[in-house]
Write a structure and sequence with these properties.
Length: 479
Amino acid sequence: MKKNFKNIFFLMLVSSMILGCSDKDKLTSDIVGLGGDTWAKTEVDDWISKNFTTPYNIEVKYKWDRSELPEIYKNVIPVKESLVIPVMDIIKKTWIDPYVGIMGENFMKKYTQKQFFLAGSPSYNSNGTITLGTAEAGRKIVLLNLNTFDPDNQPAVREILHTMHHEFGHVLNQNIAVTPDYQRITPSDYTATWFNIFRGAYSSNAALDKIMYEADFWGKGFVTPYARSNKDDDFVETLSTLLEGGEAYFNNIVNNLFVYEGQYIKRNGKGIYEQNTDARNKLLKKKAIVTSYMKNEWGISLVDLQIKTQEAIEANSPTPPLNELLGAAKPYSSIAVNPQKLTGLSSNFLTAYNNANVGLQANMGLYIDNISLIFSTANRVILRVNFMDPTVAVGAGYNADFHYTISGSNDNITLTYTNPQPTNANARAIEASVFPIVNYFANQTFILKWVDDIIPQSKGLFGGLVNKNDPESYVFGTL
């Protein structure tokens, strides 16, 4: 009966359509998708054909076609035609080309997704998240939120590249499954409500909220909140983070996992931090499996692919010189240096730091927790020494500010210890004890630079000062 009812309804609908049209009526507009959306090829289409369709049999659709979207009820707008080539050029150079450089063109011809659909805005979800990209059965990728794309904006480039490596990771995993040992590393922490992990969800105290937010994924052994959604996305998120973020980014996550009580790291009586060894081990195990999987199943050196990917990002969306970004009223105004969170600091700096720390403990029963260099004005930098009481396992510390005047060019600066010093009561109290570290900077000329020659793939993550007269003496920290 249901079938007959549907047939009757369909016939009635067709009849009403026929009766509603006279031979005088004219249909003056075509229906999109049914012959009304033809257009002449442009240089955009020629470029796509040359760079994607001919070499890799990949179709790139950018003209509006709502049927291509997985959820057609959402308000998504077309991509700007002027952005099609910049977006796809970045994808080719930072995703396809590095793989081709390792595995050759035939590998990408065989395994890459065969259709791209580009859209201008993100897709907003009912759970408060937004979708930036989707994939369908390893054959099609939908890329969204492209109308704000700027190839000179490296974070935007990395965002797209992360999506590409994520989706291609699914293709690899669907062809050859990763070992079940991977999902046994964090079996009880996958959650369908991963989208509840976001800044602002934990505390009105911004510092505490950041700590609790990071503890909810990094602190459980996941590289991103989305990695907690399921085992497959966990695997591809780890792979894409290692490739898009790079080795230094991943290692910096691991090196900053500690045990917190509230907003303070737990310390022993000598100020040594208590590491979150459980989370560190989980992340390192996942990295080891991903590395082994790529090598044993696909013959791909993850290290080599990382290097080619990071070089491609830097070549096509270069990071400005540090001196253009660091300073008063610039994107970065300080460098935070904490030897317990960093590896690779020069022996000269560590000797000065450790001698100051020993002196402070011997003379005053205190210890240095960390230091920072604050570029407060165009001609002044502050050395802030943050120190603690070792008898207190957790708790707020104190800071002492020592001022230096700056002279020299933008990337070569000479720091002159300002007289009179120190500038506040705390500095006055500890000055004699911490003079080794004060003197490390005093009356020395430094080159402001990225330290990717010291810590590879760290450009944009760590900024440093290298002694101009002794290149083996340097200090760097997070920006």
